[in-house]
Fold each of these.
Amino acid sequence: MASPPDPQVILADDEKLIRDADLQALIDQAIASGEYRLALRYYYLQILRGLGKVGWIKYESDKTNRDYSKELRPRTIHSRFDQATYWYEYIWYGGFLIDEGQFRQAEILFQDLNHQIESGHE
């Protein structure tokens, strides 16, 4: 008898998450369950939401992370956004698992970037 397939997390599309989701609650839930890759994904979406909210980027579902980086180029926040993008793409798209220590390192950057965006300081 064949074993059932492993359950898979079905993720809503980025646009819906950015527009409607309580990303902080999703981050907290992912951290509590040890899903650090997923937590970084939600942090990155939170950054995109914040950047759109303050008008530093225009979020569009067909844009790439590089498109957003180009929009931010005249701002001092650009290099920190590129660092966050590197972490996100490496972990999420690369499919790499990270442990709690690695996550906590990346989390500092993501949280600082979010605070910088929320305060309106580039």
Amino acid sequence: MKAWLSATLVLACVLGAGEAMAQRTKITVYTAFENDELAPAKASIEKAVPEAEVVWVRDSTGVITARMLAEKDNPRADVVMGLAATSIIMFEKAGMLMEYKPKGIAELKPLFLDSKEPYTWTGQDAYLGVMCFNTVEAAKIGVKTPTSWHDLLNPALRGKIVMPHPASSGTGYLMVAGWLQSMGEEAGWKFMDGLHENIAAYLHSGSAPCVQAARGERVVGLALDTRGAAEKTRGAPIEVIVPKEGVGWELEAGAVLKTTKHPEIAKKIADWMTTKEANQVYAKLYAIVARPDVPSTPPNYPTNAESGMIKNDLTWMSDNRERILAEWSRRFDSKSAPKK
């Protein structure tokens, strides 16, 4: 009798779990999160919103942005997150996003909030473009540690620098937009003309340039800030440098699509984005997150990084993206690495 009762209880639990699983709603989330971030974020979301089953569609910033704009009249995503705010502002202007203020936004740093009404998106984390400088390889060619962007114009660095392609990498675009804003457009393009002479290739990743510098394949990799800190922590002979003129930066942000068929669940996922638990997920890969009560100081992260963030106009970056990328491609696309 006890054995029968135990078996019945086990079967009931299994059937109950199966029924709960069957009741979960698939929510399609477009993202440019790093691959390492996907599993922890999915687990955290589904714990906070148990009726949701997160289905990621993940690619680089440029690819996700182009895909969402191409699908404008027939959107397939319910939610977008972990994507450059400058891309999300484009979706906002195209009328693709739902007006919604997630619970908890009052607890976030003001920098991470949509500054215009109607409110449609919320920032999650910030990332910067820095120099990864291989001191061992630099010593071989007699190049000193740079302190300014203009130090990268040294003829000894010809063919020794790699950076992200701005059309496919959000990190690449924030660097280009940062130079144009901080130097002025005429001087910014002139600087990039000189830098191009020393570029070996424009890579389709925000992290890959630093990885190449860390391996000694290049002397300088212009790349994502946290990737630089991670490579140095692994023992690479690199310095992670925030030049004295300051660095460009961008936010990753999230929003709900106006056309989602599951608005209440999608809103709950947007609420999750502002939570301490969500910010702890972001903080595993990003040093600067939206919540001030979630500290994140990775080993070997440059102490002057946050203070080195330039005055940055995200709306300007979004409004001028197509123009800037067209001009950049006209000038520099000849050194773009093949896409895999």
Amino acid sequence: MNDAAILLVDDEQSILELMMTVLLKEGYTNVDTAATGEAAIAACEAKTYDLIVLDVHLPGRSGIDICPFLRQTTNAPILFLTARTTDFDKLTGFAVGGDDYITKPFNPLEVVARVRSHLRRYFAALETGSNKHSDKAFTVYDYGRFQVDEAAGELKVEQQTVACPALVFQLLLFLCKNPNRIFSKSELYEYVWGEDALHDDNTIMVHIHRIRERIEPDPSNPQYIVNVRGLGYKLIQNEARSTL
């Protein structure tokens, strides 16, 4: 995992140097940098990255502006760097395709923990999707309107393949494997993001919303993933079926 390709995007040279130093110390040697949104887009068009750390405040086009363009070329985790801490800013970052955020000023150890956690989950998802010829039996979870193919790492809704970032897919897959069971936000965060990630309620809420946007006929009135007030979320399984 230490050969993972990482792109750091920030217009502050001191921050780029700090993150480079910390990542190199942890053994991550395949690290590139970009100082503008345009440079970040060009880098992602020229090279495949496994993780991107993206500053919100960039000269010209902001990190929020370019994130949808990056999502056209990669499903790799995108971690926003932001000096803003309001819920609105966090939700905006998740809505445009971000997977997590780090608030400035940040602890370098937090950056390493989040990078390691997201890379572990990302590579696990890739391995699941590519390991079609192993002896392990994978399942297709069929809910009528949508199907989740564990082996292919694929979500289909009404017979159409729907793009699904790695962590959104992992959260949906986890719920499909545990239907009709209520999970608190902290449990979902631990199971999907990993024990060394920091728990944040907004992360779960936004990713649940991103799943609902894909699978629900009416995301504002969910039929599949429901919120049990005060307890958490569960995926409803009525006549759903799973096949090997």
